[in-house]
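INFO batch 0412 | record 1 of 1 | parsing
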Amino acid sequence: MNDKHLSSQFDTDLNQVCSRVLEMGGLVESQIVTAMQGLNTFDRTLVDEVIANEHRLNTLEVEIDEECSKIIARRQPTARDLRLLLSISKTITNLERAGDEAEKIAKRTRHLLEDGAAQSVNFAEIKLSGEMAAQLLRRTLDAFARLDIVAAAEIVRDDKAIDNEFRGFVRKLVTYMMEDPRTISAGLDFLFIAKAIERIGDHAKNIAEFIIYIVKGTDVRHISREDLQRKVQGE
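INFO prediction complete | emitting tokens
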């Protein structure tokens, strides 16, 4: 992932912490996929599995952050190495929050099952946006592993599609609840699920922006998608 340093141990430290980020990312992706499977099939076992695994993500975040702090204290990194470690600290925060959103999906699904209202709303858009969010996170982890800024810029652009699915579903959901007030309780659960998926896409986008920061040294969080493309292409 990085250029070689005079200290081989420094390279080892950096590679190990990056590997742990990818390990954490893989667990988050698994949580999202399992939560969506639990929702799509209304499988209580899958829902409970997601909720039970949440503590593993919290533990990983703390451990990786401690590793980054130790590397900074020992090696006093500069330039790209320092940007990498700072971005890892922010990346694992976003991964942990994406995991929180997967847990929210599971908890809302459990509430739907307990209320017996699971089939009261057509949620095809949620199924699609959930698949899109999981795929976006997978692409983000791959871009992080390769520090691929072109792929990262595409991820930032593609997050907009998840936002569009969310807005479309909200409009449909409001119509459902206005036409049949009996769907309001279930509708609110589905609304929170849709918002959780939209937030997962946002966290993947944030990580993609950190990748660009590591390589380019520029904070791109507040520039337009068009300017971002030009930045990545070196214009």
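INFO post-check: The first helix runs from residue 8 to 41.
INFO record closed
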